[in-house]
Sequence to fold (371 residues):
Amino acid sequence: MKWLSIIRRSLGGKILLSYLVIIVVAFVVLATAANFHTGPAIDRHIAEMEAALRGGPQQAPDLLDSFHQAVNEVILVAILAGSVAAVAVSAFTSRRITRPLRAISEASQRIAGGDYHQRVPVVSEDELGDLAMSFNRMAEALEQTEQRRLELIGNVAHELRTPLSSIRSTLEALTDGVVAPEAATFLSVQRETARLQRLVQDLEELSRAEAGQIPLKRQAVAIDELIEAALERLRPQFGDKGVSLRSVTGADLPAVWVDPGRIMQVLLNLLGNALQYTPPGGDVIVQSSQQQDRVLVAVKDSGVGIAERDLPHVFERFYRVDKSRSRAGGGSGIGLTISKHLVEAHGGRIWAQSPGPGQGSSFCFTLPPAP
Fold:
């Protein structure tokens, strides 16, 4: 029935129903106790009244008192029985209501102590059930955040360890005279130092992006001009590797409402990623088109491709599809993560597509048009 469904899904309805049940139970017990106790009580007092009648009319006040005592006794017994039943039903219903709250309270204390695996059972479909599901989602989010924090610490330590170890070994070799103090040696140290500096800068940028603290200086910009500027900056690197780089622009595209410096950063990150994972002789194409009320930009490459299981994770910090090249490419491993936050800060969306390993990949993002 509809009213049963409403009560099942509403905590207020359950509380109201519990009050009605308590009233009904108290009334039934009161009536039952009165019914069972009235006969014996009245019979006993009638016997006392009959004995008093033999004493003459002067015993009339005693008869009235005896009758009042009989009525009061019946009422008192019925009230006591009804009260006991009402208290028992109230205790039962209150425990049913407060048990989920106690479970959530205990689980929250354990989570505060660092046990992020805690979950509470969802035992109803009302507001308490919604609260339990929200609590479980919160606990899961906290657990994932803690896991990402631990992974971040491990990844940063690993990223720092590699260049630091290279710098240390080079300096030790210079100190021991194993390596001659030549320009090439100092250039190697300079590259590793620059790599450390780039990692620190990227981490600072990521921290600001995740906190939503990157200011955007928006203006109306032609997306094709941004794409061509990005291509010109990276064309020498593509030429050195032997990878073809070109753009395909749509006709009559509206201007986009963006911070040109930040979107240039996104384009450079995506193009650098495509260059890193595209072998010599491959192709990288940047396409722009209009998708409903948005402008779509896609960076497509003919590189190593991405397995389906990796697609949901490519924008995570330090996640790399090709684990064997995780440190050789020189990137910090968080460029795509920063790009995701920058695009979303503009009100756009970014995603990755790939038919599979060895079949290339596409990184697409949308931007809002200028008002």
Remarks:
- The CA atoms of residues 218 and 258 lie 5 Å apart.
